[in-house]
Specification:
Length: about 525
Protein backbone atom coordinates (compact mmCIF):
# COMPACT_ATOMS: atom_id res chain seq x y z
CA UNK A 1 0.00 0.00 0.00
CA UNK A 2 1.42 3.37 -1.06
CA UNK A 3 0.01 6.47 0.61
CA UNK A 4 1.00 10.01 -0.29
CA UNK A 5 0.83 12.18 2.86
CA UNK A 6 -2.06 14.50 3.46
CA UNK A 7 -1.54 18.04 2.20
CA UNK A 8 -3.50 20.88 3.79
CA UNK A 9 -3.39 24.56 4.66
CA UNK A 10 -5.13 26.34 7.54
CA UNK A 11 -5.87 30.05 7.99
CA UNK A 12 -7.13 31.57 11.25
CA UNK A 13 -8.28 35.14 11.88
CA UNK A 14 -10.41 37.11 14.35
CA UNK A 15 -12.65 40.16 13.90
CA UNK A 16 -13.63 41.48 17.37
CA UNK A 17 -15.95 38.78 18.82
CA UNK A 18 -15.91 36.72 15.65
CA UNK A 19 -13.40 33.88 15.17
CA UNK A 20 -12.80 32.12 11.88
CA UNK A 21 -10.74 29.13 10.84
CA UNK A 22 -10.52 27.86 7.26
CA UNK A 23 -8.86 24.68 6.02
CA UNK A 24 -8.35 23.24 2.54
CA UNK A 25 -6.57 20.04 1.67
CA UNK A 26 -5.94 17.15 -0.65
CA UNK A 27 -5.14 13.48 -0.05
CA UNK A 28 -4.27 10.66 -2.40
CA UNK A 29 -3.89 6.92 -1.86
CA UNK A 30 -2.66 4.31 -4.28
CA UNK A 31 -3.21 0.77 -3.06
CA UNK A 32 -1.46 -2.15 -4.73
CA UNK A 33 -2.52 -5.67 -3.72
CA UNK A 34 -0.76 -8.79 -4.93
CA UNK A 35 -1.02 -12.48 -4.13
CA UNK A 36 0.77 -15.54 -5.44
CA UNK A 37 0.30 -19.25 -4.92
CA UNK A 38 1.98 -22.46 -5.92
CA UNK A 39 2.18 -25.98 -4.53
CA UNK A 40 4.06 -29.28 -4.47
CA UNK A 41 2.41 -32.60 -3.61
CA UNK A 42 3.25 -36.01 -2.12
CA UNK A 43 5.76 -35.35 0.64
CA UNK A 44 7.24 -38.40 2.39
CA UNK A 45 6.62 -38.70 6.12
CA UNK A 46 9.69 -37.73 8.09
CA UNK A 47 10.93 -35.94 11.17
CA UNK A 48 11.34 -32.62 9.35
CA UNK A 49 8.24 -30.71 8.33
CA UNK A 50 7.99 -30.31 4.50
CA UNK A 51 7.62 -26.55 4.88
CA UNK A 52 11.32 -26.42 5.73
CA UNK A 53 12.36 -28.55 2.74
CA UNK A 54 9.87 -28.34 -0.14
CA UNK A 55 12.35 -29.98 -2.51
CA UNK A 56 11.43 -33.42 -1.15
CA UNK A 57 7.96 -33.12 -2.73
CA UNK A 58 7.49 -35.95 -5.22
CA UNK A 59 4.89 -34.39 -7.53
CA UNK A 60 5.14 -31.10 -9.36
CA UNK A 61 2.78 -31.24 -12.32
CA UNK A 62 1.06 -28.36 -14.04
CA UNK A 63 -2.31 -30.08 -13.79
CA UNK A 64 -2.24 -30.35 -9.98
CA UNK A 65 0.13 -27.51 -9.14
CA UNK A 66 -0.76 -24.73 -11.51
CA UNK A 67 0.56 -21.39 -10.17
CA UNK A 68 -2.09 -18.89 -9.16
CA UNK A 69 -2.13 -15.24 -8.30
CA UNK A 70 -3.76 -11.86 -8.56
CA UNK A 71 -2.79 -8.21 -8.66
CA UNK A 72 -4.89 -5.06 -8.56
CA UNK A 73 -4.53 -1.34 -8.05
CA UNK A 74 -7.06 0.91 -6.33
CA UNK A 75 -6.77 4.69 -6.12
CA UNK A 76 -8.62 7.09 -3.85
CA UNK A 77 -8.32 10.87 -4.19
CA UNK A 78 -9.99 13.47 -1.98
CA UNK A 79 -10.32 17.24 -1.96
CA UNK A 80 -11.73 18.70 1.25
CA UNK A 81 -12.37 22.00 2.98
CA UNK A 82 -13.69 23.19 6.32
CA UNK A 83 -14.71 26.53 7.82
CA UNK A 84 -15.18 27.00 11.56
CA UNK A 85 -16.96 30.03 13.03
CA UNK A 86 -17.39 31.15 16.65
CA UNK A 87 -19.08 34.21 18.13
CA UNK A 88 -18.12 35.05 21.71
CA UNK A 89 -17.52 31.35 22.26
CA UNK A 90 -21.30 30.99 22.50
CA UNK A 91 -22.46 30.30 18.98
CA UNK A 92 -20.51 27.78 16.92
CA UNK A 93 -20.77 26.68 13.32
CA UNK A 94 -18.78 24.31 11.08
CA UNK A 95 -19.19 23.71 7.36
CA UNK A 96 -17.37 20.88 5.55
CA UNK A 97 -17.20 19.79 1.95
CA UNK A 98 -15.52 16.72 0.47
CA UNK A 99 -15.05 15.59 -3.10
CA UNK A 100 -13.92 11.94 -3.14
CA UNK A 101 -12.90 10.02 -6.23
CA UNK A 102 -12.38 6.25 -6.44
CA UNK A 103 -10.99 4.10 -9.23
CA UNK A 104 -13.52 1.43 -8.26
CA UNK A 105 -16.24 3.36 -10.06
CA UNK A 106 -16.75 3.82 -13.78
CA UNK A 107 -15.73 6.82 -15.85
CA UNK A 108 -19.23 8.33 -15.50
CA UNK A 109 -19.25 8.51 -11.70
CA UNK A 110 -15.76 8.38 -10.26
CA UNK A 111 -16.39 11.34 -7.93
CA UNK A 112 -18.90 11.85 -5.15
CA UNK A 113 -19.69 15.16 -3.41
CA UNK A 114 -20.35 15.14 0.33
CA UNK A 115 -21.27 18.30 2.27
CA UNK A 116 -21.90 18.58 6.00
CA UNK A 117 -22.48 21.25 8.63
CA UNK A 118 -22.99 21.53 12.38
CA UNK A 119 -24.23 24.18 14.81
CA UNK A 120 -23.60 24.58 18.50
CA UNK A 121 -24.89 26.81 21.29
CA UNK A 122 -23.06 27.04 24.64
CA UNK A 123 -26.08 27.95 26.72
CA UNK A 124 -24.10 28.25 29.95
CA UNK A 125 -22.18 31.19 28.44
CA UNK A 126 -25.37 33.25 28.36
CA UNK A 127 -25.93 35.87 31.06
CA UNK A 128 -29.24 34.34 32.16
CA UNK A 129 -27.41 31.08 33.05
CA UNK A 130 -24.93 32.60 35.50
CA UNK A 131 -26.74 31.32 38.61
CA UNK A 132 -28.08 28.12 37.12
CA UNK A 133 -27.28 24.66 38.55
CA UNK A 134 -25.58 23.71 35.29
CA UNK A 135 -21.79 23.75 35.04
CA UNK A 136 -22.13 22.95 31.35
CA UNK A 137 -25.05 23.07 28.94
CA UNK A 138 -24.53 22.87 25.20
CA UNK A 139 -27.05 22.27 22.44
CA UNK A 140 -25.73 20.97 19.12
CA UNK A 141 -27.08 19.72 15.81
CA UNK A 142 -25.55 18.47 12.60
CA UNK A 143 -26.29 17.20 9.12
CA UNK A 144 -23.93 15.55 6.67
CA UNK A 145 -23.33 13.04 3.93
CA UNK A 146 -20.65 10.38 3.54
CA UNK A 147 -19.88 7.92 0.75
CA UNK A 148 -19.32 4.19 0.60
CA UNK A 149 -17.06 2.64 -2.05
CA UNK A 150 -16.71 -0.86 -0.56
CA UNK A 151 -17.20 -2.92 -3.71
CA UNK A 152 -14.83 -5.30 -5.52
CA UNK A 153 -12.25 -3.78 -7.81
CA UNK A 154 -12.84 -3.58 -11.57
CA UNK A 155 -16.52 -4.59 -11.47
CA UNK A 156 -17.44 -1.59 -13.63
CA UNK A 157 -15.26 -3.00 -16.41
CA UNK A 158 -16.14 -5.84 -18.80
CA UNK A 159 -14.72 -9.29 -18.11
CA UNK A 160 -13.96 -11.87 -20.76
CA UNK A 161 -13.28 -15.58 -20.34
CA UNK A 162 -11.48 -17.76 -22.86
CA UNK A 163 -12.49 -21.41 -22.87
CA UNK A 164 -12.36 -24.46 -25.11
CA UNK A 165 -16.00 -25.52 -25.38
CA UNK A 166 -18.66 -26.46 -27.87
CA UNK A 167 -20.68 -23.48 -26.62
CA UNK A 168 -18.03 -20.82 -27.29
CA UNK A 169 -16.44 -21.79 -30.61
CA UNK A 170 -16.92 -23.79 -33.81
CA UNK A 171 -14.89 -26.99 -34.40
CA UNK A 172 -12.02 -26.99 -36.80
CA UNK A 173 -13.19 -28.59 -40.05
CA UNK A 174 -10.17 -30.84 -40.43
CA UNK A 175 -9.89 -32.29 -36.96
CA UNK A 176 -13.20 -31.56 -35.30
CA UNK A 177 -11.34 -30.04 -32.34
CA UNK A 178 -12.63 -26.89 -30.69
CA UNK A 179 -10.29 -23.88 -30.56
CA UNK A 180 -10.41 -21.46 -27.64
CA UNK A 181 -13.40 -19.14 -27.67
CA UNK A 182 -13.93 -15.87 -25.81
CA UNK A 183 -17.20 -14.90 -24.13
CA UNK A 184 -18.45 -12.15 -21.81
CA UNK A 185 -18.41 -13.06 -18.12
CA UNK A 186 -19.43 -9.56 -17.05
CA UNK A 187 -20.78 -6.56 -18.94
CA UNK A 188 -19.32 -3.11 -18.38
CA UNK A 189 -21.29 -0.86 -16.02
CA UNK A 190 -19.76 2.65 -15.93
CA UNK A 191 -22.86 4.05 -14.20
CA UNK A 192 -22.16 2.52 -10.76
CA UNK A 193 -21.67 5.36 -8.28
CA UNK A 194 -21.06 6.06 -4.61
CA UNK A 195 -23.51 4.79 -2.03
CA UNK A 196 -24.56 7.80 0.05
CA UNK A 197 -25.43 7.98 3.74
CA UNK A 198 -27.18 11.10 5.05
CA UNK A 199 -27.13 11.57 8.81
CA UNK A 200 -28.89 14.08 11.06
CA UNK A 201 -28.18 14.33 14.76
CA UNK A 202 -29.31 16.55 17.63
CA UNK A 203 -27.56 16.43 20.99
CA UNK A 204 -27.45 18.03 24.42
CA UNK A 205 -24.38 18.00 26.69
CA UNK A 206 -24.86 18.89 30.35
CA UNK A 207 -23.00 19.11 33.63
CA UNK A 208 -24.50 19.35 37.12
CA UNK A 209 -23.43 19.32 40.77
CA UNK A 210 -20.41 21.58 40.10
CA UNK A 211 -19.13 19.30 37.38
CA UNK A 212 -19.45 16.04 39.30
CA UNK A 213 -22.26 14.75 37.10
CA UNK A 214 -21.82 14.98 33.34
CA UNK A 215 -23.79 13.50 30.52
CA UNK A 216 -25.18 13.79 27.05
CA UNK A 217 -28.30 12.87 25.11
CA UNK A 218 -28.14 12.32 21.34
CA UNK A 219 -30.76 11.54 18.73
CA UNK A 220 -29.51 10.36 15.35
CA UNK A 221 -31.05 9.31 12.06
CA UNK A 222 -28.95 7.90 9.22
CA UNK A 223 -30.43 7.04 5.82
CA UNK A 224 -28.36 5.15 3.25
CA UNK A 225 -29.50 5.23 -0.37
CA UNK A 226 -28.07 4.33 -3.76
CA UNK A 227 -27.34 1.02 -2.04
CA UNK A 228 -24.49 -0.98 -3.61
CA UNK A 229 -25.53 -4.62 -3.96
CA UNK A 230 -24.76 -7.67 -6.06
CA UNK A 231 -28.14 -8.74 -7.44
CA UNK A 232 -29.71 -11.12 -9.94
CA UNK A 233 -30.48 -9.41 -13.28
CA UNK A 234 -34.12 -8.97 -14.26
CA UNK A 235 -33.22 -9.74 -17.88
CA UNK A 236 -32.47 -13.49 -18.15
CA UNK A 237 -30.31 -12.88 -21.25
CA UNK A 238 -27.19 -11.88 -19.34
CA UNK A 239 -23.60 -13.21 -19.45
CA UNK A 240 -23.48 -13.57 -15.66
CA UNK A 241 -25.95 -14.76 -13.06
CA UNK A 242 -25.38 -11.70 -10.83
CA UNK A 243 -24.09 -8.16 -11.21
CA UNK A 244 -23.24 -5.17 -9.02
CA UNK A 245 -25.40 -2.07 -9.21
CA UNK A 246 -26.92 0.78 -7.23
CA UNK A 247 -30.44 -0.07 -6.07
CA UNK A 248 -31.87 3.40 -6.67
CA UNK A 249 -35.00 3.59 -4.50
CA UNK A 250 -33.98 1.23 -1.72
CA UNK A 251 -33.04 2.83 1.61
CA UNK A 252 -31.64 1.53 4.89
CA UNK A 253 -32.51 3.75 7.87
CA UNK A 254 -30.72 3.54 11.19
CA UNK A 255 -32.07 5.77 13.95
CA UNK A 256 -31.94 5.86 17.69
CA UNK A 257 -31.25 7.58 20.98
CA UNK A 258 -28.00 7.52 22.97
CA UNK A 259 -27.70 8.52 26.64
CA UNK A 260 -24.46 8.81 28.59
CA UNK A 261 -23.91 9.62 32.29
CA UNK A 262 -20.71 9.94 34.33
CA UNK A 263 -20.48 10.81 38.04
CA UNK A 264 -17.17 11.43 39.81
CA UNK A 265 -16.59 12.62 43.38
CA UNK A 266 -14.32 12.31 46.41
CA UNK A 267 -14.53 12.52 50.21
CA UNK A 268 -12.42 14.31 52.78
CA UNK A 269 -10.96 10.99 53.89
CA UNK A 270 -9.33 10.55 50.49
CA UNK A 271 -11.83 8.19 48.90
CA UNK A 272 -12.29 8.87 45.19
CA UNK A 273 -15.04 7.13 43.29
CA UNK A 274 -16.92 7.27 40.04
CA UNK A 275 -19.57 5.39 38.15
CA UNK A 276 -21.52 5.79 34.96
CA UNK A 277 -22.62 4.19 31.78
CA UNK A 278 -24.15 4.61 28.38
CA UNK A 279 -27.09 3.08 26.56
CA UNK A 280 -28.20 3.25 22.94
CA UNK A 281 -31.69 2.43 21.67
CA UNK A 282 -31.53 1.41 18.01
CA UNK A 283 -34.05 1.02 15.21
CA UNK A 284 -33.12 -0.22 11.74
CA UNK A 285 -35.38 -0.75 8.72
CA UNK A 286 -35.07 -1.57 5.02
CA UNK A 287 -37.58 0.23 2.77
CA UNK A 288 -38.52 0.41 -0.92
CA UNK A 289 -36.50 -2.61 -1.91
CA UNK A 290 -37.58 -3.88 -5.35
CA UNK A 291 -36.89 -7.45 -4.20
CA UNK A 292 -39.16 -9.56 -1.99
CA UNK A 293 -36.03 -10.79 -0.19
CA UNK A 294 -32.30 -10.34 -0.74
CA UNK A 295 -30.81 -13.51 0.69
CA UNK A 296 -27.76 -13.52 2.94
CA UNK A 297 -26.22 -15.81 5.53
CA UNK A 298 -25.38 -19.18 3.98
CA UNK A 299 -25.85 -22.22 6.21
CA UNK A 300 -23.17 -24.90 6.65
CA UNK A 301 -23.49 -28.58 7.39
CA UNK A 302 -24.71 -31.86 5.97
CA UNK A 303 -28.03 -31.36 4.19
CA UNK A 304 -27.82 -27.57 4.52
CA UNK A 305 -26.04 -26.77 1.25
CA UNK A 306 -27.53 -23.74 -0.51
CA UNK A 307 -29.78 -22.97 2.49
CA UNK A 308 -29.87 -19.34 3.65
CA UNK A 309 -30.59 -17.81 7.04
CA UNK A 310 -30.77 -13.99 6.81
CA UNK A 311 -32.55 -11.72 4.39
CA UNK A 312 -32.97 -8.04 3.50
CA UNK A 313 -36.75 -7.60 3.57
CA UNK A 314 -38.95 -4.53 3.21
CA UNK A 315 -40.03 -2.97 6.52
CA UNK A 316 -37.62 -5.21 8.46
CA UNK A 317 -34.12 -4.55 9.83
CA UNK A 318 -31.02 -5.76 8.04
CA UNK A 319 -29.90 -9.06 9.54
CA UNK A 320 -33.51 -10.27 9.75
CA UNK A 321 -33.81 -14.05 10.10
CA UNK A 322 -35.99 -15.31 7.25
CA UNK A 323 -36.93 -18.87 8.21
CA UNK A 324 -39.57 -21.54 8.30
CA UNK A 325 -41.27 -21.50 11.70
CA UNK A 326 -40.77 -24.77 13.59
CA UNK A 327 -43.95 -25.83 15.43
CA UNK A 328 -42.82 -29.05 17.12
CA UNK A 329 -43.01 -32.78 16.37
CA UNK A 330 -45.78 -34.90 14.91
CA UNK A 331 -46.89 -38.35 16.07
CA UNK A 332 -43.99 -39.95 14.25
CA UNK A 333 -41.42 -37.73 15.93
CA UNK A 334 -40.77 -35.66 12.81
CA UNK A 335 -40.58 -31.87 12.68
CA UNK A 336 -43.59 -29.79 11.68
CA UNK A 337 -43.60 -26.23 10.37
CA UNK A 338 -46.19 -23.49 10.05
CA UNK A 339 -47.97 -23.52 6.70
CA UNK A 340 -48.03 -19.77 6.14
CA UNK A 341 -49.70 -19.70 2.71
CA UNK A 342 -52.09 -22.55 3.55
CA UNK A 343 -51.36 -24.62 0.42
CA UNK A 344 -50.65 -27.78 2.41
CA UNK A 345 -47.02 -27.86 1.29
CA UNK A 346 -44.09 -26.68 3.38
CA UNK A 347 -41.68 -24.80 1.10
CA UNK A 348 -39.62 -21.62 0.93
CA UNK A 349 -42.89 -19.74 0.40
CA UNK A 350 -43.61 -20.38 4.10
CA UNK A 351 -40.54 -18.53 5.33
CA UNK A 352 -41.27 -15.52 7.54
CA UNK A 353 -39.32 -12.76 9.33
CA UNK A 354 -38.55 -13.95 12.86
CA UNK A 355 -36.43 -11.26 14.48
CA UNK A 356 -33.09 -9.70 13.75
CA UNK A 357 -29.45 -10.11 14.68
CA UNK A 358 -29.21 -6.37 15.37
CA UNK A 359 -29.74 -5.54 19.05
CA UNK A 360 -32.40 -3.02 20.00
CA UNK A 361 -30.42 -1.95 23.06
CA UNK A 362 -26.65 -1.70 23.52
CA UNK A 363 -25.35 -0.71 26.94
CA UNK A 364 -22.26 -0.49 29.12
CA UNK A 365 -21.62 0.66 32.68
CA UNK A 366 -18.56 1.05 34.88
CA UNK A 367 -17.35 1.91 38.34
CA UNK A 368 -14.02 2.86 39.94
CA UNK A 369 -12.65 3.44 43.43
CA UNK A 370 -9.37 4.85 44.75
CA UNK A 371 -8.36 4.88 48.43
CA UNK A 372 -4.92 5.08 50.06
CA UNK A 373 -3.06 3.29 47.30
CA UNK A 374 -5.83 0.87 46.39
CA UNK A 375 -7.70 1.21 43.13
CA UNK A 376 -10.53 -0.82 41.64
CA UNK A 377 -12.03 -0.62 38.15
CA UNK A 378 -14.97 -2.65 36.82
CA UNK A 379 -16.62 -2.61 33.37
CA UNK A 380 -19.77 -4.36 32.11
CA UNK A 381 -21.28 -4.40 28.63
CA UNK A 382 -24.26 -6.08 27.01
CA UNK A 383 -27.02 -6.10 24.40
CA UNK A 384 -30.66 -7.11 24.22
CA UNK A 385 -33.42 -7.49 21.65
CA UNK A 386 -31.36 -9.57 19.21
CA UNK A 387 -31.39 -13.16 17.99
CA UNK A 388 -28.62 -15.65 17.16
CA UNK A 389 -28.90 -18.52 14.72
CA UNK A 390 -27.05 -21.54 16.12
CA UNK A 391 -25.77 -23.11 12.91
CA UNK A 392 -23.42 -25.28 14.99
CA UNK A 393 -26.37 -27.00 16.69
CA UNK A 394 -28.29 -27.14 13.39
CA UNK A 395 -25.40 -28.98 11.72
CA UNK A 396 -24.19 -31.20 14.55
CA UNK A 397 -26.48 -31.33 17.62
CA UNK A 398 -29.65 -33.13 16.53
CA UNK A 399 -31.00 -36.60 17.17
CA UNK A 400 -30.12 -38.09 13.80
CA UNK A 401 -26.48 -37.84 14.87
CA UNK A 402 -27.18 -40.37 17.63
CA UNK A 403 -27.64 -43.13 15.08
CA UNK A 404 -24.07 -42.46 13.96
CA UNK A 405 -22.72 -42.48 17.53
CA UNK A 406 -21.57 -38.84 17.43
CA UNK A 407 -22.44 -35.63 19.26
CA UNK A 408 -24.60 -36.93 22.09
CA UNK A 409 -25.32 -33.51 23.53
CA UNK A 410 -28.12 -32.38 25.86
CA UNK A 411 -29.67 -30.51 22.94
CA UNK A 412 -29.71 -33.64 20.77
CA UNK A 413 -31.72 -35.64 23.34
CA UNK A 414 -33.89 -32.80 24.68
CA UNK A 415 -37.08 -34.15 23.03
CA UNK A 416 -37.66 -37.76 24.00
CA UNK A 417 -40.27 -38.48 21.30
CA UNK A 418 -38.14 -37.11 18.46
CA UNK A 419 -37.31 -39.75 15.86
CA UNK A 420 -33.69 -40.57 15.10
CA UNK A 421 -34.70 -40.24 11.45
CA UNK A 422 -35.82 -36.61 11.88
CA UNK A 423 -33.99 -34.21 9.58
CA UNK A 424 -32.79 -30.79 10.72
CA UNK A 425 -33.37 -28.19 8.00
CA UNK A 426 -32.79 -24.49 8.58
CA UNK A 427 -35.70 -23.27 10.72
CA UNK A 428 -36.63 -21.27 13.79
CA UNK A 429 -35.83 -24.33 15.93
CA UNK A 430 -32.22 -23.13 16.10
CA UNK A 431 -33.02 -19.43 16.48
CA UNK A 432 -32.14 -18.31 20.01
CA UNK A 433 -32.16 -15.23 22.22
CA UNK A 434 -28.83 -13.43 21.87
CA UNK A 435 -29.08 -11.02 24.82
CA UNK A 436 -26.20 -11.00 27.29
CA UNK A 437 -24.45 -9.03 30.00
CA UNK A 438 -20.69 -9.54 30.34
CA UNK A 439 -18.25 -8.60 33.10
CA UNK A 440 -15.72 -7.45 30.59
CA UNK A 441 -12.97 -6.22 32.88
CA UNK A 442 -12.19 -6.16 36.62
CA UNK A 443 -8.90 -4.76 37.88
CA UNK A 444 -7.62 -4.38 41.45
CA UNK A 445 -4.30 -2.74 42.23
CA UNK A 446 -2.21 -1.33 45.04
CA UNK A 447 0.50 1.32 44.64
CA UNK A 448 3.10 1.40 47.45
CA UNK A 449 4.39 4.69 48.81
CA UNK A 450 8.07 3.94 48.33
CA UNK A 451 9.14 7.46 49.32
CA UNK A 452 8.61 6.68 53.02
CA UNK A 453 10.37 3.31 52.78
CA UNK A 454 14.07 2.49 52.67
CA UNK A 455 13.67 1.07 49.16
CA UNK A 456 12.69 4.56 47.99
CA UNK A 457 16.39 5.26 47.40
CA UNK A 458 16.38 2.76 44.53
CA UNK A 459 12.72 2.31 43.55
CA UNK A 460 10.50 5.32 42.92
CA UNK A 461 7.36 3.31 42.14
CA UNK A 462 6.00 -0.13 43.07
CA UNK A 463 2.57 -1.40 42.04
CA UNK A 464 0.87 -4.80 42.32
CA UNK A 465 -2.25 -5.58 40.31
CA UNK A 466 -4.56 -8.37 39.23
CA UNK A 467 -6.83 -8.02 36.19
CA UNK A 468 -9.60 -10.34 35.09
CA UNK A 469 -11.17 -10.21 31.64
CA UNK A 470 -14.39 -11.86 30.52
CA UNK A 471 -14.96 -13.21 34.02
CA UNK A 472 -18.61 -14.16 33.48
CA UNK A 473 -21.49 -13.77 31.05
CA UNK A 474 -25.20 -13.73 31.95
CA UNK A 475 -27.17 -15.07 28.98
CA UNK A 476 -29.82 -17.58 27.93
CA UNK A 477 -27.84 -18.51 24.83
CA UNK A 478 -26.49 -22.05 25.23
CA UNK A 479 -23.76 -21.81 22.59
CA UNK A 480 -20.14 -21.03 23.38
CA UNK A 481 -20.49 -17.26 23.32
CA UNK A 482 -23.39 -14.90 22.49
CA UNK A 483 -21.01 -12.21 21.18
CA UNK A 484 -20.52 -13.91 17.85
CA UNK A 485 -20.86 -13.28 14.14
CA UNK A 486 -19.46 -15.85 11.73
CA UNK A 487 -18.96 -14.43 8.24
CA UNK A 488 -21.54 -16.19 6.07
CA UNK A 489 -21.69 -13.54 3.33
CA UNK A 490 -23.47 -14.41 0.06
CA UNK A 491 -22.44 -12.50 -3.09
CA UNK A 492 -21.19 -9.57 -1.07
CA UNK A 493 -24.40 -9.34 1.02
CA UNK A 494 -23.33 -9.25 4.67
CA UNK A 495 -24.78 -11.72 7.16
CA UNK A 496 -25.31 -11.13 10.87
CA UNK A 497 -25.79 -13.13 14.04
CA UNK A 498 -24.84 -16.60 12.81
CA UNK A 499 -22.86 -18.93 15.08
CA UNK A 500 -20.96 -21.61 13.17
CA UNK A 501 -18.11 -23.28 15.06
CA UNK A 502 -17.19 -19.91 16.54
CA UNK A 503 -14.40 -19.92 19.08
CA UNK A 504 -15.40 -18.40 22.44
CA UNK A 505 -13.67 -15.40 23.97
CA UNK A 506 -10.99 -16.41 26.44
CA UNK A 507 -11.32 -15.82 30.17
CA UNK A 508 -8.05 -14.52 31.56
CA UNK A 509 -6.55 -13.44 34.88
CA UNK A 510 -3.33 -11.43 34.71
CA UNK A 511 -1.11 -10.62 37.69
CA UNK A 512 1.14 -7.61 37.39
CA UNK A 513 4.19 -6.17 39.11
CA UNK A 514 5.37 -2.74 37.99
CA UNK A 515 8.64 -1.24 39.19
CA UNK A 516 9.89 2.26 38.44
CA UNK A 517 13.55 3.05 39.11
Amino acid sequence: MLTIPLLHATYNFNVKDHSFSALAGHSYQKIFLQGRGWSINKFPVGQIEPIYNPAIGQELTLANNKPSGYALINELQSFFSRVNYSYQNKYLATVNFRMDGSSKFGANNKYGYFPSFSLGWRITEEDFMKNSPFSNLKLRAGWGQTGNQEIPSKITQPLFTSTVSSTTSYPLAATGAYPAGTIYSRLANPDIQWEVSTQTNVGLDFGLLKGKLNGSVDYFRKISNNILLEVIPADPVQPAGTFWTNVKDMTITNSGLEVELDYRSSTRSGLKYGFGGNVAFLNNVVEKSPYSVIQSGSASGSGLTSATINGYINNQPIGTFFLKEWTGLDANGLSTFRDVDGDGIISDKDRVALGTALPKVIYAFFGNLEYKGFDLVVNFNGVSGNKIYDNTANASFYKLKLSKNVNTTPEAIALAKESVNNAAPVSSRYLKDGAYMRLNNLALGYSFDTRSKPIGKWISGLRLSVTGQNLFVVTQYNGYDPEVNADRTINGISSYGIDMLSYPKARSVVFGLNLTF
